[in-house]
Amino acid sequence: MPLVDMKNMLDHAYYHGYAVGAFGVDGWEILEGVVAAAEGMRTPIILSVSNAYPGTDSIESLARGVIEMGQRATIPVAFQIEVEDNLQAVAVAISMGCNGIVFNASSHALPDNVRLTQKVVEMAAASGVLVVGQVGQLESGDTVDGVDSVDNSSTTPPEAKYYVERTGVGCLAISVKRLNSGGNKYDFTRLSKISQAVGIPLGIHGSAGFTDDQLKRMISFGAAKINYSSVLLDVAAQRIRENALAGVEGYTAIMEGVREAVRLEVERCIKVWGCGGRAAEVLLQCQSRDRAYANFDGDNLERMRVG
User: Fold this and answer.
1) Which of 78, 98, 158, 274 has the fewest CB atoms within 10 Å of its CB?
2) What would be the CATH architecture of the domain defined by 3-306?
3) Of 207, 191, 209, 217, nearest to 141 (Cα)?
């Protein structure tokens, strides 16, 4: 079936209290493992690609593969491309046929972040592409001393509201910071306040450091999209190491079981995030999209890579 509208997909998750996984795919084994899990669990999914993923020099073939896989799937599939703060890359990503852009200009001052994101939203609107924006740097192990203290990188409710109202993004990726040095407690109070302030689906990027219970709490506070890529790479790598240690030879033998390992990890996530069995109701809400994506070429891709 055609790719489904990503905004409708996330809105459904947001209003029904679950989260959709945006699974990073940087190879065919991972892509096939993710889709197999989603098909088996009857869940909506977002397939995500980025030049920033380890070992991914070109996303052209992956983009085509993702779209083809989505069209063959019997569950709702959306397709996002992560572009950082490169406006030229945004145009190329849209021409590739994605229906979600992850645009991150949070390293800029807030007014500049707003100005750049406004341009991206305008570019994406004509093609019906949802923009995921970001305010504040993602959790990186830095700590916050006390509940009410905030460093310059933390997302605050006022700046989140300011950003969303002026940019029109459809999903907001935010940082959730640690409360105290050396601990594993996070400022969920601020997350709740941000959710109330913006009233749109929130995205959790960099989810590898959080426990299942912590992610469940984030979902209860409005997180409707969870980016998940590094863990899948680790799962695949672990399976390959096990095969190598077993003394097997040849590519096929080395890669044996990678798809299955990825499938099992994705199924585990689906159970935790509450999106299993939601395919039918999401299909009823989502507007089908089948945009042409044959207008991009090697020159466009090279401009995206070096732009």
Assistant:
1) 158
2) Alpha-Beta Barrel (3.20)
3) 209
